[in-house]
Amino acid sequence: MRHLSLRLRLGLAGALAVVLALGLAALGLSLLFGTHVERRAQAELSIQLDQVLAGLARKDGVLTLVREPADPRFGQPYGGLYWQIVDGDRILRSRSLWDYRLPQVDDLGDGLSHSHRLPGPDGGPLLVVERQVTLPPSLGGDRIQASVAVEAGSLAAARQDFLADMLPYLALLALVLIVAGGAQVMVGLRPLHDLGARVTALRQGTARRMGQDWPQEVRPLATEIDALISAREEDIDRARARAGDLAHGMKTPLQALMGEAGRLRRAGEAQSAAGIETIARALQRHVDRELARTRAAARARDARADVAQVVRGVTAVLRRTPEGSGLDWQNSTTPGLIAAMEESDLAEAFGALAENAARHASARVQIAAAIAEDGLIHLSLTDDGPGIAEGQLSALIARGARLDQGGSGLGLAIASDLAEASGGGLHLENTGAGLRAELRLPPAPPGHPDDPPPA
Questions:
Q1: 151-156: long-range contacts, CB 8 A cutoff, minimum separation 24
Q2: 366: how many CB neighbours lie within 10 A of its CB?
Q3: What are the Histidine kinase domain coordinates in residue numbering (predicted)?
Q4: Among the four residues 128, 140, 152, 379, which has the most C-beta atoms within 10 Å?
């Protein structure tokens, strides 16, 4: 349940609430309808009881019913509607009772009607209305007890029929309410979807802040996210400044080391001088790498670079170098690709890969760039050189591996750092006929006035 979406949770809870509410409503309406039907039946039985009493007469000194009630069920054996008059030991009853005698309830009170549930001829319950009446002197003045009864099963059947007729409409109402509740949930949760889309835009660099155009319930969260972003940006800016200061601060000691190495060389200590120079150059490469990462991270937010233009510029320079002049540079870069990266940083990263390809290629370097299915720009260089040993390649492409170790030099590490600073990365693989190095770069948001027209 914890992993279900909010939309599904609310939808299920709403549907369950609708079904439960309508079920209780159906039960309540059924009970109310049953009560109403029973009340109407008692009223009709009272009228029929009056008709029975009005039809009494004495013939030859014997109390008889000269006018039968009009309902034909009184004349059908076990027809479901019955009347009975008890006059002392003598009983008058409808043909529908046949030879059955309705049970009597004592002490009803003179002239008052009472309703009871009593057993009927077939064992089922009867709704009985009874009244004790003192006859007028013209009818002998006797005290009699008159009863009219109807089978209670017919009342229950009427309630069941009512419920059966009501259920389709309740089901339709439940469907309408569930659909309406689902629509309400979708509308109510729409700000959360927009919130996720805005966070994605923040991650991709197409938005800078969450903003305040949110419903009242979501606005505090958006405000906290903006505050967190501001705090993180301040921390990152301070860290970048410290890294840049550290890298710049190391330049002077490195220059002093190189000067000391020169003095040692002039003093005849060539071996010591070479060792110091090797260490100083390695430190200088690391300083340059950190400066490149700091510069790229600081400018990546609003940076834009025309990939095709950078590729043409770098390859034009390499074609004039001794290593690249004899190679066939095949360029199939898609025009109009704009990467979210500073142009100088893209040139440095691509240049490092291109120089590496020029050093190891035998005759040909293939360059391609296009938007891939992951939404990133894939800028690849494939040479026909010996490639990289599989063991070393696995170490280079492993998560967290340092690309400045091994025989590939610092260029791959700088290219990887610059790509990662822009939100992308570097991928290396052996093709069987050389090495394929691929920069994966996020595209810049469209609509910038300096962008070239699409191809």
A1: 151/80, 151/81, 151/120, 151/124, 151/125, 151/126, 151/127, 152/117, 152/124, 152/125, 152/126, 152/127, 153/124, 153/125, 154/80, 155/34, 155/37, 155/38, 155/41, 155/127, 156/34
A2: 19
A3: 245-445
A4: 379
CATH code of the domain in which 248 resides: 1.10.287
CA distance 56 to 47: 15
- Residue 292: predicted pLDDT: 62
SS3 sequence, 50-96? HHHHHCEEEECCEEEECCCCCCHHHHCCCCCEEEEEEECCEEEECHH
| Residue partners of 274: CB distance under 8 A and separation at least 6 | 261
Q: Are 120 and 96 in contact (CB under 8 A)?
A: no
Q: Give the least confident one: 3-17, 286-300, 440-454.
A: 286-300
The pTM (predicted TM-score) of the whole model is: 0.51
Q: Is residue 341 part of a domain?
A: yes
The parent domain of residue 320 ranges over: 305-441
SS (H, E, C) 171-196: HHHHHHHHHHHHHHHHHHHHHHHHHH
Domain count across the chain: 3
Most confident of 221-235, 294-308, 406-420: 221-235
Q: Is residue 288 part of a domain?
A: yes
pLDDT of residue 17: 93
* Residue that finishes a domain, picked among 299, 333, 350: 299
Name every residue whose Cβ is closer than 8 Å to that of residue 357 and which is 6 or more positions away in sequence. 365, 381, 382, 383, 385, 435, 437
Distance CA 22, CA 358 (A): 77
